[in-house]
Every structure is written in structure tokens, then in C-alpha cells.
Amino acid sequence: MAHQGAINHLRKADPKLAAVIDAVGRCTFEPAEHMPHFVAITRSIVFQQLSGKAASTIYGRFAGLFADATPLAHKLLELHDEQLRAVGLSRQKIRYLRDLSGRVHSGDVPLEKLHELSDEEVIAALTSVKGIGRWTAQMFLMFRLGRPDVLPELDLGIQKGVQRAYHMRKLPTPKRVLEVGAKWAPYRTVASWYLWRSLDPTAENRQGK
Q: Could you give the residue numbers annotated as active site?
């Protein structure tokens, strides 16, 4: 099993997480390594604050504006707002996508070298873009780059997962999530995957969230 080393560590480090692992079963986490960086980031922006089905529909229409349904920064800059609005994008998300495209096109965001940067450097680069916060950058680290030690402490699902696993009366704060999850390093990505799955065992993984 590709994740057996991580699972063995997590079991030994945290009996409560071991119970979660037993309940969920086999880990099927797999990053989308085939997906171009720009596609992954534009997808994350489109999916913000939307249900999966609605976001998928809008993203499909958005991608259809490009050759081979593959968004490119310089091509996005050539599109008119009316074209982007017509596929269902809000004015706010259009601003975010244009800011991303402009920064990528100018080289301010070193898109093709993101995989060479540390986790915190990736977060710093991405959060310089309007509409991209720490959570979105962490999703990119996990589900595109496959970084093994990411714990998205701001994620409500992670907070709920920790609350359930530890039988907490109140939802833990992001700071408390980081304190609890410190023992899971250097495999906090797999731990996070298990926490998400513990809340919805029948759901697909959170790639493209």
C-alpha cells in the first residue's frame, strides 16, 4: 500500500486517530499529478463557495472557452468579461481569475516552479493573488503537489473530524487543531484525508474541492 508507512506512523502516534483509520479503512488518497498548475488553481477559484455539482458545471463551461478545454493564463486575459459571465462566473471570481492570470503572465507568481518551493513558499506565492487564501493554497499543496505534511487547520471538516475523534464538546480552534495534529507529522496530509472521510465515508476524496 502506497500510504502504509504513513498509516503505521499515525497509528503509533495517536490511538484516537488509529480508531478513525480502522473505521474508514483503506487510504485511496491520490494527488492529481496530471493536472497543470494553472488548471488546478483556476479550478479551486471556481469551486469556492459553490456546491460540487454547480461548480463542476460552471468550470466545465469555463474550460470550454479554451482549446482542448485547458485554461491558459495568456488566453484568459484575452477573454472579455461578458464571455466569462456567460459561463456562470461571478464578477468577483472574474477579478480573481484575471489577477491570477496577470500575475502568472508577468512572472510574479512562478507557476511552473511552484513544485520546487517549500510548502510555506507555495502558500506565500499563491496568497499574493486576490481570492486565494491559505486554505486554497493548502488544497493545492495536498491535492495537486501531493505534499505529505499539510494540515488545513482552517477547514471546517478537519475541525469537525478532530472534534469527533477526540470527543470534544466544542469545535476546536485552528490553533487547537495544529496542537492536536502536531504528533501526526510528517504525515498530516494522510491524517487530514482520514478525518474528512470519517465524516462522510461514502464521499469521494476532496480533490477539486
A: 155
> CB neighbours of 67 closer than 8 A, spacing ≥ 6?
75
Summarize pLDDT for 119-156 with one digit per residue, the tens: 999 999 999 999 999 999 999 999 999 999 999 999 99
**Mean of pLDDT over the chain:** 92
Give the length of the chain: 209
CA distance 154 to 136: 10
What cell does 69 get?
478545454
pLDDT of residue 49: 80
CATH of the domain at 156: 1.10.1670.40
Question: Which CATH number do you get for residue 45?
Answer: 1.10.340.30
- Which grid cell sits at 45? 477559484
The pTM (predicted TM-score) of the whole model is 0.85
- Locate 103 and state its grid cell: 500575475
Cα 154 to Cα 138: distance, rounded to the nearest angstrom: 10
37: Cα separation from own chain's centroid: 12
Domain total in the chain = 2
Residue 144 and residue 34: Cα distance in Å, rounded?
Answer: 8
pLDDT band at 201 (very low <50, low <70, confident <90, very high): low
